Model the fold of this input.
Amino acid sequence: MPDFYGVFPYLVSPVDTSGQIRTDVLGRLCDDLIKAGVHGLTPLGSTGEFAYLSREQRTAVVQTTIEAAQRRVPVIAGVASTSTADAVAQAQSYQKLGADGILAILEAYFPVNDAQVESYFRAIADAVELPVVIYTNPQFQRSDLTLDVIARLAAHPRIVAIKDASTNTGRLLSVMNRCGDSIDVFSASAHIPAAVMLIGGVGWMAGPACVIPRQSVELYDLCKAKRWDEAMKLQRRLWRLNEAFARYNLAACIKAGLAIQGYDVGDPIAPQAALAADERKVVEAVLRDIG
Done:
């Protein structure tokens, strides 16, 4: 299994008023992010509004990203469902499209226990020949990945990493201590990326990297070089963007930030709403200060 590391922007899903994916806008964004130095692309993450898209829209987003990447960087496609069979079908279809990896997300309506959570992720990894990154975000999900489940999944030959958006950095250290080299840890925007890199993380998958890719790559490079004083100086400056995003809808913030930068990505998908004028000014001011 190839190693994934570095900055993976969670891509937005540009949708026009008729519900069509704006493939030209997404393709240009992907190309610009790659030229800015990002290490990979992740369509259909949280910022990609996967929960609001149809199967056809999801497929268009993944296919467009793969075609735009042209094998320059790996594409880790998000797979999410309440149904194991549907998640497996998604993963297999993205493998056929040419994805380089799968980001596995569990949605839940009825509660599921640890054994059922584990079986969901294991089924996805069993069904494809690609490396799988497992994802957990207990703020928005009815289920979570316990340390015991993570440790068992880490032994699977195709489960290579976990992206944890719990906000609990101590939990990340526990995962590292428990699993050792059997699974890599990616930060989320809910964590402080430089802190996660300090304790042994391999990078981050996050929406803010869509609007500050160059600065995100610079931060990663400083962390890899162990230039921690410089890294934290930059991290403090970039953290203002995370603080702004935490106040509002994440997809709305990222789409507003991209619109400010000239990408016609459209509004977040209803019933979500675009940022109000005063909220957009907050994002614009932070981006201007960051440069």
